[in-house]
Structures are given as C-alpha cells and as structure tokens.
Fold these 4 entries.
Entry 1:
Amino acid sequence: MTLLKPKLITKLCGLVCSVSLFAANAQIIPSVPQINAKGYFLVDFTTGKVIASGDADTKLAPASLTKMMTSYVIGTEIVSGNIAPTDMVTISEKAWAKNFPESSKMFIEVGKKVSVDDLNRGIIIQSGNDACVALAEHIAGSEDAFADLMNAHSEKLGMTNTHFINSHGLDTDQHYTTPRDMATLGVALIRDVPEEYALYKEKSFTFNGIKQYNRNSLLWDASLNVDGIKTGHTSEAGYSLVTSATKDDMRLVSVVMGTTSERARMVESRKLLNYGFRFFETITPYKAGDSFAEQRIWMGNKETVSLGILEDTPITIPRGQRKNLQANFELDKTLEAPLAKGSKVGTLFLQLDGEEIAKYPLVTLEEIEEGSFFSKVYDYLRLQIMQ
C-alpha cells in the first residue's frame, strides 16, 4: 500500500490543523446495476463500508447458507481446542445420508467413524446435510443444542435478524436470515477462523469413493479472484450465493439471495463484485506508527512532539480518488509536558470532497519529559503573552 506523504498547510484555526492532498474533480460513480434477487449486499471486508444493498434487512430462508454458521461454530470449536480435526465421529441414525434423499449430502453411513476434518470438508465443499447433523451432535450432543450455539454466535456477531433451527438449512418455520446478516457472517468467517475459511476455495472433495465438486461456480471464473464462500438452494429460498473475492488490496463480500437459478446467482454476484472492484478501492493513507505531524509542545525537554496514530487507517474510496483526500487533525488542548508515549491528544479526520469519511485518535508517538525549570518559566511566559 502506498503511504501518502502530504504537506502541512501552515494556516491554523484555533487548534485545528489541515494536511492537504491535492485537489481534483470528484469521480462520478454510476448507480448500482440492477440486481435480480430478493435481496443483496456488497461490503468492503477491511473497512466495513457498504458499497451496495437492496432489501438488505428482509428476512429470507437461507437454505444452505446456514452451513456458513455451522462452519463458523466448527472453526471456533477447533480454535478453542474443544474438538480437533483428527477426532473421529460415530455417525448416528439421525445423521445417516438416507435421511436426506432429495438434498445434498456427503454419503456417510450409520455406525461408521468419520474424522472431523472429512466431515468439515463434506459440509463446506459438498454441502452435506448429513455431515452437518453428525458434527452438530458431536459438538453439542444434539442438533437442537447446536442450534442454540449457532444463535448465540449470531447474537454475538450482531446478526440481529437471524434465527437458526437446524444446522443444514432445510426449510422450516422460524429459520431465517437477511442479506446484511449473511455478509456479517461472511466477514466473520474470514476474520475469525481463517484456517476454516481456507477450505472454501477447494474445488472438489472425494469421500466414500464419490467425488463431488464445490457448487460455487465462481471459483472457476478466471476474471475474478474468488476464494469462497457458499451456495444455497431450496424451493422456498430460491438460489442464493455469498461470495468473497480480492483485487489488489481490496477484499469484497457479496450476498445475493433468492435468485431464480444457479446461473442467475452467479451472474448477479458477478455484477456486484465487478461493480465494487471497478469503481472503488481500499487504501491505507497512514499506517500504525506513522508520523502525521510535528506539533509544538510547551514545558518540555523538546520543542516539538511527533503525532500519529496507533492503528492502520484503511478506507474505501472511489477508485482513483486518492489524490483528493484531505487529512485534518484537531487537538484537544494546547500540548504541555510531560506527555507519555501513546497519549491521546486529539483526533485525525480523513475527508473526501469536504465529507468526513473516517476519524481516528491522534496520539503522541514519543515520550516528552518536563524541561528544565528555566525553560518551563520561559514557556509559561510565552504562553501568557500568546493568550
């Protein structure tokens, strides 16, 4: 990522200072293309910026998108050490593949022992309903108890319009989600359980002599760098797809729910991703520890202190508009020593075309100790004169 090297504008207004990054004309962004789905959502993974949405909070049947939460729970259980990929799971009658004759399955057999790792791949790659029940029982004792875990994680993630009844997503009353909540879950999968998420890019999995291919056809799309996430389909839900793809420093998560066919969910998802990558970009103007400005400090053993931020500043902007950014900072008060390193002294604002798009705490990047007695008296007198 390219670090911006702005010049300090010497004009001060009270305790507000400006850093300018060249002026230019604003980029014209076209409207979001028409998305033929019951609901859709497009978000920048890194910044959380919502780029496009439609009926994003409409409650819809998730179908096999449900398995994203099943997978999330599995991933967190592995990370916490409660289960291991090498654990062997005895397949119960409830998890038997014969219980799911008209739906996707892994083809596991009752009484057989199957590893957590194989069952996990059976869920993610093969969308196996039987594998979902097997791991739900292994983790929580029953599918009902596992659904409680799913809902607890949903609440923790802020998925306020989601409720799960089962681990696989077959239609049932009070089993619903929204495009926005599915995007939240997609982001959480990538962020919280990266080893689990890495399985989503695998294109096929063979179990019990049966090779099945990942139903996410965008994994084969050479024009997009897609590495997940999940398809879903039932007669009630229609055809849905949550997708994540990367370009340069940008990762997008897209959701389309309730399209009319397998092809339609692929086409509509591609529309969203292409729109996001074509007209927007993720940049990081300043990184953690970068010095933003040297500011006068009084009563100290130095005359200036280096100010900056303690975190990266990723933002989503219209593509090509980096040069239009302006950074401003506002001090909370006149700076006086002593000041410890990392002390918050103000706020950094990032603006584009006069609109604030982000703000961060402005901190000292070094410790400033008190100066000598005489230098403090001198600074005190100067401050009195300036006031």
Note: The domain at 39-281 is CATH 3.40.710.10 (Beta-lactamase).
Entry 2:
Amino acid sequence: MTSDAVSRVPEPVDEVVREYGPGSAERAALERRVDELVAAAGPLPMVIGGERRFGGGERVAVVQPHHHAARLGEYGNATREDAKAAVAAALAAGPEWRSLGYQDRAAVLLRAAELLAGPWRATVVAATVLGQSLTVRQAELEVCALVDGWRRAVAQGRELLAEQPASAPGEWRRADIRPLAGFVHAVSPAVSTAAAGLLPTLPALLGNTVVWRPAPAQTLAAHHLAELLAAAGLPPGVVNLLTGDGQPSTQVLLAEPALAGVHGPAAELPGLWPALAARPGGPPRVVGAPDGGAFLLAHPGAEPAAVRSALLRGAFEHRGPAAPAIARAHLPRGLWRLIAEELLAEVDALPVGDVTDLTNFLGALPDRAAFDRATALIERAKADPAVELVAGGQYDDAIGWFVRPTVLLCPDPAHELFRHGCPGPVLAVHAYEDWEQALAAAAASPYAPAGVLLARDRGAIASAVEWLRFAADALHVNDRPVAVAPVEGLRAWARTRTVREEFGPPAGHRYAHLG
C-alpha cells in the first residue's frame, strides 16, 4: 500500500573520492579484497527471477586483462532458453514492481548507493580493478560516479513526477507517469562499472523491469552489482542478469513482442537496428548512453603546464564512459613545439602493467577485441604517410592485453583519427595555425560525450563555449573529463498519460450560436 504523502527525496551529495594512499585503511581493505577475489575465482551465475544459475551454453573463463592466464571465475553463455526465462521473469515481476510507490522504488536505489559507498565499496572497486584492468584511482572514480548517479536519478525522478499540467477553471488535469508496457533490455559496456550499474537501474526506478546483459569482460563487477542490488532490497525479477556474448540471447530479446525499450552504449546500438526495425510493431524505445572519446581544444594563450597535465591524465589514465578518455587534441602549433619534447618523454615514461601494483599509471585493455582494435589503428597509422608516430606504438599480448600510451601527430583535422576517434590509450594531435579554424574543426568533429577547453582569455572562453555548444554532452573548461555518470535519459523510461476531469459536465448538446 502506497502512502498519500508527497515525499521529499534526500538532496544528492557527491561521494568523496578516496585516495588509497600508503598505509591508509581503505588501501589495506582493498588489498585484502583483491586477494580474496583472486583466491575465490568462483562461479559467476546468471540471475533470473532471483534464482542464480549457470547459462546453458559454453562455459567461459573470466580472466584478468593484465594477466590473462589468471582466472577470476567462470560463466555460462546464456542460451535462447535462458533469454526466454529472463523475459518471463521480468514480465512476471512487472505488476508488483509497478504497484509500489515511487518512494519505495527510490529507496532501493538510495539503499544501494549507501551500501556501495560503505561496506560494498572495496568489493566493487576490487572487481573493477581485476576484471577491467582499471587502476585503483579509476575504479574508485567509477564507484563514486555510480553512487552519485543513483542519488541524482532519484532526485530527477521526483522532479519528473512533479511536472503537472495547468488546469482551467472547473477542471483538473494531472499527469500519470507510467512505465513502458513490457520489459527493457539493457546492454552495458566492458569498461565502465558506473554505466553497468545505471543502464539497467534507471528504467527500473520508473517502474520498468529489465533483462540486463553486461559485456563479458564486465562479468565480475556485474555479478557483484547484482548481489548488491539484491542486498538493497530489489525484488526478484526486476533486474535479470544474463551472462555471455549475447549472440543467442539477443536474437530472442530483440524479437520478443513484449520488448518495450533498449538501453545501451550509443556506439553499440547501430548494430541492433536491423533486427529492431524488422519487428512487426516497429522498433521499441531506444536510448543510447554517451560513449566514445573526448576532445581537447587549447587556446594559444593556454597555460602550457595545464595542457600537458590534461593530456597525460585525460588521454591515458582512463578508458570508460564515466570519464571518457581524450582521443583527439587540437593544439596551437607554437604551444605544441613548446611542450612536445617534455610531454612525449613523460608519455614514454608512464608505467604500464598489472594494476594491482598501485605504482602503475594504467593497465591493460579489457579484452582481446579492444586490443585488436587499438593495435590495428596503430598499424594503419604507422603505414600512413600523413601520420607521424611521435610516442609509443608498442604493444604486447604475451601476458596481458597491453598497449603502450601512443601519440599520433596529423596535420589534417579531417583525417579518420579525428573523425572516428582512437581506441585504447591512443591520442591524435592536430597542431593548428589558426584559432578560428581550430574551433571550426573541433565543432565539426563527431559528437563526443565530453570536450575539454583550455584557455585563460575570457573572451576566447566565451567564444569557444558558444562555438562548441553542439559538440559534446559536457564541456570542461580548464580541466580534464571527470567521472560523472549521466542520468539525463531517465525521462525516456516513462510514458505520460494525461487525466482530465471536468467538475461541471455539460447537460445538453446545443451550443449558444444555434439559437
């Protein structure tokens, strides 16, 4: 039974990032949890209707990307039958989940945020470090972004419910914010734990039930997120977890008549369009979460040390949507000449290796596919006379999927490096002569999840902010991209019904002009 109270949700407060310095309590707790997860290397089952069971397909080992001979566990590839069972569980859970008031659904996410910020923090950070080869710093940022995302989503959901239409005298118009009719299929990427937590739970917050398939490389962290949601009180069947590459199960899910929506990384959704468009009733609602590489644009008057720091940290310390890596940079030629020697020496000196060694600046790519994409780009660049390899370019998959931080210099801002972005720790640099042409080039590049503007001149900042208005979801002025989990797509997971009640209904059918 829901309460008639108009509740006020807690004001979202950003989670404080922990530093994990030598001798700190959080570092000791994390190191213990890393050792425990490595020693456990247990089964990583699906979760369907609250039941934990192995997928019926091929058994696949989950490994550490930086040490791919070391197993973290094993999952079973979800089959067509598993997908059908997950759909049935989601549809069965729908009526009861929808019947709960918003405050009850929101309480589950707020409880999950508190658990993740507290007793579950070390577990999810450790799983992200081991399973996705993110450094401790970046794994911590992912966890904080997820905590913040859940808290912000609850606040934004309350604001959405409070949006009501105006009523004329003698009537009452009210908006009924309803979930979609059916279930939502959520697909989460390999590199971001924050995205993995938000993609299935944002639709659930508004009353939808979900079939969730994380990327295989994200299975370890996804497993612990599913356990965390259960501990937070999420009822069975609201979010159902399928493991595996998705090839058999996706066919079933996309053809299912009850499919109401798809939520996933924007880059992965185009591959689903043929199947979605062929559905008899037309495609369901599709919402793409921002992903891909960010860009950096430096003004000729930018502080050289700030540019160097933003490039080193922004391009090479992270690879995920919660804090997108800078993949392309537009720098004034004079500034490039000034910082190039020191910057490239620092790039070549960045320590790369096992991320459980906290002295390493970055780890391995999350899986073989990501490694192959990055190395293929590097080899094309080496063979391209229009591109100069100025740092890095080495890679090795003997122990882990390692790619050295790489910088490519190209004079043409229309080159594929700037049109399609660079996978892995690869940065493309365009050294420009003219500021306005650089502005136009940055604005004309493919839409990015984030952009960085470095400048000291206020007029240049104001002009660039306007030029780049449609270039990115977020623009960071004089800072690199930071871990922020976007929740702007929350509105897409509801349908609005307007209820209009007339308090004095007409008694006749004749209008005044009829006489």
Note: The mean pLDDT is 93.
Entry 3:
Amino acid sequence: MYNHNNINTKKFLICFSLSILIMGVFSFSSLNKTSIFSKNKSEEASVFTPTKKNVNKASLLAVGDTMVYNAQLTGQYDVSTAKYNFNNNFEYVKKYVEDADYSMVNLETTLTGNKVYRYSSYPKFNSPDELADGLKYAGFDLISTANNHAYDKGDLSIKNTLATLKDKKLDVIGTRENNGDRYIVKNVNNIKIGITSYSYGRIINDNKYLNDVKISNEYKNSVNIFDSTSIDKAFNNINYTLKKMKDTDLQVVYLHWGDKYSLKENSFQQKLAQKLCDAGVDVIIGSHPHVVQPVTSIKSADGKHETVVAYSLGNFLSNQTRDQFNQYTEDGLMINIDISKNNTDEEAKVEKVTCIPTWLNKYYNSKTAKYVYEIIPLANKSDLDKINNLSESKIEKSYKNTAEQVKTSDLISIVENPFD
C-alpha cells in the first residue's frame, strides 16, 4: 500500500529543487549576460570610438641624375632577348628606394623611342624605354623630367617620354601635356605634398630655349623652364606654380641648375634658394652639376621658416667615371626626408634628413665581355662585404668626398662611416 503523504512530500521537494535550480540558472545567466554586455560595450567604446591621429608621418627619398651613355647601352643589352634591361643597376639601392613612402629621381635623358631616332648619348640623349622599367623596378614613384636634355630629340622627346612614363604608372613632373598642371599634389599618409620641377633655360619674347635650342610653339609650354638670365625672372617663373599649389602641407621643388662639376653652389643658386625659402618652400632638390654639392638648411628673411636645400645630389646612374671626367662624378647622394603633420594645429614640417652616399661601381665582366654598372649605397659594412668587384680605396674616398658636402645639424645627418 502506497503512502500518499510520502509521495506528495517527494513531489514537493523535487518541484522545489527544480524551481531553485531554474531560478539559479536564470540568475546566473542574467548575471553573466550583464557582465558580458557590460564588458562588450566597454570594449566597443575603446575599439570603435573614432579618434583622430595626432601626428601623421611620411618619408620621401630623392636621388640625383640618371643618364645613359653608349657604353651603358652596350652593357645593358641582352642579345638573347634582343631587349635592354637596367634592373641590375639598382639592385643594391632598391631596398632604400622601396622603404620610403614616396621616392623621386631626376631623369636626365629622353625616352623618344628608336623608330625615328637611334638610341644615343651625349650631346643628344635618347635611351630605351626599359630604363623606365628599371626605375619602376627600383621602387621609384616620381620622375623629374625638367632638365637641359628634355628637348634633345625635339617634340618627340617630350611627347614620347611623357607617354612612356605614364604608361609605366610613374608620376611625372617637369614636362606635361599642354593643358596639364606644372606640379603634382600627392597625399602621402594624409600629408598633402606639392611637388614641382624646373630647369634653367632662356625665355625671350615668349620663346623658350633649352641648350640654346628653341622649343617649338606647340611644346614650349610643355616644359617647366625658369629664365636663368635673372634671379627675379627665375623666381617669378617658379613662384607662378608655387601659388597654384599653395593649398598643400609641404612644398618640394626640384631644380636643374648650377655649374657642371663644381663642388660649390654658385651665387645664382644661393639667391634663388633664399627667395624660394622666403616664399615658403620646404625642400629644394638640385641636379645638373653631376657632382654632390652642399646639403644644408637656410632660414627665411623673417626667421620663421626653414628650408632644406640639397644644391646637387650628384650622379645616380651614368658613365661619368673618374678616369673620364673628374674624381667626384662617381659620387652621388640619396636623401631620406622624414616629415610630419600635427593634426591639432595642421602644421607640417621636415623632421629629419638622412643622407646616404652612393658610389657608381663600373667593372668589366670577362664572361659577358660587357661593362657592369651598379649603384652602391655606402651605408652598411656588412652589406658592402657581400658585394664583389668593389674597390675599397675608391668607396672610402667616395664616402669622404660626399661627407664633406653634408652640413650636419640637428636636422641633417649622414649615415655613419662604414669604414671606421
């Protein structure tokens, strides 16, 4: 006979226990949900709350003259493919070029093609399009084309060089289509950088001349030229463009100027640089002398602005060897320019300039019966030890030559001597 009281008691205890258990589960779940959601909101606030970066930073790299002489044409031609290849020239500097956020080079030759004109060197330069491929391979972003050789093969020089470089997805300043801008504005890590390039020349009665050759009416406005007969005229030519690109954070000007093979900037360079500094230009990069001239900084007349001036970065790639020209034409310089923009006051400035000397290594390869050209950065002893066919005495001398031209300061430095 069953005891109904016991059964009822057991049922009650079971139901009560289940109720307590269910309430506990819900309470535990509720507590945990509160804890989780509270934590997530806190995390979401830290992850998704928009914050404005206080300082943006970017780095620019600039190098000197890139030229191709007949000996280089022979050395870079591949008989098996019937094509030119310049990649090996840049193998050792490639990492420096690629590491910068934006890299620039002066192209002191034309890419006119070989359908109308043959490839040639001094005094009328015309190089294979593959040179542009080599510069692209090295990591360059921008090509400056305003120089005294820009019109060496006439109208086609400007037209074809511009078309080739743009086809390779390279930015171009110095030459342009007739309706194009004389400058470029690049947004590098949210810093707006205005860049232009000008070459010395003559402007007479609205006619323009490069190397005393009159540029056709069709193309005379396609090359950025400053009148080298007068400081004021030269400044006004350039300042016309500076005013156009005034709404930028930083202004960079490439200038083809100075005296060939002179280690010292001339009075014209000094005075023009000062006027550009007074106008607010932040960086001036010089080319044309084919040797390294001083790298320094100058102050505006009112003392409120400072401009970095590299009067000449020397040769980057060429056949201007010591035995043919002088003891300084194998020397070049890469300058790495660190810039910043404070987003609180919108002020942008050059933070630091690091100078990296280069030396052009040329040697004969008996297996290929060709000369080899390599641009060597004089920055790291362990890297130099891995490179064959180097003359230690020449590279030590090259570093010394260039170091003497760098006016070091809190702003400007040169990589440590790898030979010490």
Note: Residues 56-414 form a domain with the Purple Acid Phosphatase; chain A, domain 2 fold (CATH 3.60.21).
Entry 4:
Amino acid sequence: MRPVRFDVVPRRPLGVATVQSLAASKCEVIEKYLDPDIEEYLNLFFQKVNTCFPVFDEASFRDAYFLNKEKISSALICSLYANSLVYWRSSPKLRSGRTPDIRFIWNQANEALNSELFLSPGLSTVISIIINVSGRPSTSMFGNGGMVGTAVALSNALGLNRDPSSWDISPLEKALRIRIWWLVVIHDRWCSLAYGTPLQVHRAQYDVPFPSVDDLCSTGASTYQRAAASIFVALTTLTDVLARYLEHVYCVSKHASYAEMSAMDLEQVLSDWEESLADDVRRLVIRGTNLDVPGAANFRLAYLAVKLLLRRIQLDLSNGSAQTEESTPSPLHMHAQRSAEDITHLIQELDETQLQGFWIPVHASSITSATMFLLRSGLRMKGNNRNTPLHVAKDMINTLQAHRQRFDWDIADNCLAHCSDLVEKLGMDNLQTEYDLSASGFPDLAENDNIDPSVLEDLLFGTRGLSEGFVL
C-alpha cells in the first residue's frame, strides 16, 4: 500500500493576525445571552445530540472545555451552543425560564463559522460544520449544501478519507478521525437524497473503516450508551446502502464508473444489509420496536426512507409508472405505496420523548417525499370508492400539525408547507374513512383554478421516470 504523505501549509491567509477576533466575540455574545444556563445547554447537547450523533468523546471534550477552553475553536463552541437550543423544552430548568431566541444565536454561530473558514480552517472547522448542518430548525438548503461541500473538501485536504488504523497516532485520534469522516459522509449522502444533488463523496475515493461500538464508547459505558452507539453504527452502514441507490439515481453519463444494477440487485443490497444487523437492531428495523433507545426513531425513519427510494427506483426500472390512468396500480406501485404508508404510521406512533429527541434535519424531506407519493397515488385512483392513499396523506398532515402544535416539532414544517394547502384545496378536509370519492364529485383537477399548475404537474407526473421528473 502506498504511504500517505502530508505537506505542511499555513492555516491563515498571508498577513492575517492569529487572533480570531470575530469568532471569539460572537462566542462571547452567545455566552452572555445564555448565561447563567450555559452548562445546562452543554449538558443538553451531550444528552440529546452527541449520544446519537457522536461528534465528541464526551470525557475528553469536557476536560478541555473546563480546563483549557481557550484552546477550543470559538466557532465550534458557538455551533455547539446553537445546536443545543432546540432541545430547551426537555430541560425542566430551561423550560421554566425564558424562550431562547434560536434564530439570533444561529446567526451569531454562522458568522463565527464563516470567519473561521476564512481565517484558519482545520479539523475544528469540519466538526463545526457537522454540528451546524445537523442543527435545527433547518432554514437554508443552499447554505447547508454548500457547508457540506466545504466539509468534504476540508476532510480530503486533511486526509480524513484515508484509513488511519496503521498510523503512528494515538487510539483516541484514530477513533476521532474515523468518526468525523463518517459524520461528513452521512451528511453528504442524506443531503444528496433531500436536496436532489449528486454525491460529493464517492466510495472509490476513501478507505476509512466503519466505526465500531468500542470506538464510540469508553470502557465504562452504560448499556444505554452502547445501544445508542450500535444504532449509530447501523446508520453508517445504512448510509452506505443509500449511496448505492443514489449512484443509480444520479448516473447520467454514458460512461458510468459503476456497474449497472437490476431491480433485484438493488433489492439484494438492502436485504444483505438487513441480514448483517445484530438481532436487537434488526428487530428495530423490521418491526419498529425499541424506539425509545436514543437515535432509534431517527434511524427507523432513515431505513424507511431508503426503502421508499428503493421501491421508487424499482418502479421506474419496470416502467410501471406508465399506467397513469389505471385505477388498479401495479404490484410494484403498491410496494412503493406501502413504504410511504409505513413512514406515515411511524410518524403517527411517535410520542413526546421521541419527538423531542435527535433527528437529522434532512429527514423532513423524507416525510414530504412520502406524502407527495401518496397524493400522486391517490389522484390516480380518484374513481376508486376507497382511496386509501389520499386518506393516509390526510392522516399524515393531521399528525404533523398535531406534533407541530403540541411539541413544536420543526421536522414537520417542510411537509406542511408543501402539502397541507394542497390537501385542503383538493377538498379532503371532510373525507370520512369510507367516503365515496366518485359519488362526492371529487374535484376535476383540470378545472380547479385554485391549485398551482406546477404543483399538479409534480404530483401527476413526478413518477414517470428518473429522467423525467423523478422527485426524491
């Protein structure tokens, strides 16, 4: 194997002072705002985020934070504070106080990060971006996509894409490099699915092994912590499966670097992954049990989103979507519909603890994708007396509205913004479970001037094929 060699380059642009004044000043502003509850927000980050999305070795970070805080990147600390704010209702102490101005804090954190990107980018910048992009509420698709691209570029420049197992560095640093690389990969691939943009990390360009539970947990870790770590490890391997499917979706060149896969080949990839799981994680995946484990609900939604993507790719490969006017869908279309319904059922089953737990922000798009697929399926069945897809889509909207109102669940926002008005305009508000759509005079879509034509085009033609408007 060829050795990995690094060059030494200055971190700061020529003529720029070493003092990162802007990032440090932004950190000071945030800390003054959060004082005297700073430590409570720090605890929330490790309880809610780091347990499920292990950015730091908690013990090492806390030692550095309390003993040598000035040596930690100010941008990193700002991002950590901002990321923790969405969980403030989970703390009895914070819940009894004032409501934090989350947008103000995020603006300060973003300015600190942008300053560090210009002045002295490094590993801390990659970590800051990971925390930033996983922050909620997510408000900027282009901003997050650009940040992920920057993280990928920095990671490659820092050699994070290479296996450090045989390097002459400490075990702690090896584990950190592996963990940070896979967090970047997770963001890249799930943002690719959510935003409809090609992958920036390709499987042939890195050799970093998957993290292990032992890499993520200290010697005295509890059963609770090890269970959360095992779910994260499964998320990384599922993300690798997602990459195989996204390579298929975004393959537009006639000279593809990846072998073409059939519908059965694609199915086998997911089946092999399911069989590779430990029994407890496999039960979570197949049956949806043990969702109270930290990160389990987020992981379950990730699995269902990958499964829906698989079904839609298979539907496209079979040309089954050509039957746009048939009231009886093909078996492959029914498989895809069932996958979308499974996402709805998961959302309906979530309780307060799970809703207030960790969620990757881009999962909001997975919920929207499932709902839009159900709406398209239902509109093609408008002559059917029992239009299950439309009923399930309405159930999804009702559930998301309840979650938003009762628990301030921002993951619901994307779907509500894209689908709730459409559901209402289609006259579905008063539908009963056994309502006869054909007898009720279901609205003629061609004559309904209240519906945006572009929305109807997406709904009616979004499944004709990957090259003709496949909507992720």
Note: Residues 320-325, 428-450, 460-472 have pLDDT under 50 and may be disordered.
